[in-house]
Specification:
CATH class of one domain: Mainly Alpha
CATH superfamily of one domain: lambda repressor-like DNA-binding domains
Helix content: 40-55%
Shape: globular
Number of helices: 5
Strand content: under 5%
Oligomer: single chain
Largest sheet: none
CATH topology of one domain: 434 Repressor (Amino-terminal Domain)
């Protein structure tokens, strides 16, 4: 019987503080991640659904350009985002 290596349970590293808010905005439009990726591609960002998954799970950084394009595509402005909680910001450090 083959042996399966067990990985130690590690807490995922938080790479952005806004991914959860982006997901809520996307879900508010009734879009799947695939729908959102398609809309972002039409807007000029060659992005795959898997990248959006990582952003929403806060496992990938978001550039200013990406954030602004996501918000524009979702029909939302910067004012639609709330200031991240202090604990979320501490997780980034």
């Amino acid at each position: 019987m083959p042996r399966v290596a067990h990985q130690a349970h590690r807490k995922a590293i938080v790479r952005n503080a806004l991914g959860l808010q982006i997901r809520k905005l996307r879900e508010g439009k009734g879009w799947s991640q695939s729908d959102f990726a398609r809309e972002l591609q039409l807007a000029g960002w060659d992005v795959e659904r898997t990248v959006l998954t990582k952003i929403e799970l806060r496992r990938r950084c978001i550039t200013d350009y990406e954030l602004l394009l996501m918000l524009k595509t979702l029909g939302a402005g910067l004012a639609s985002l709330t200031v991240p909680k202090e604990s979320d910001l501490r997780a980034l450090l």
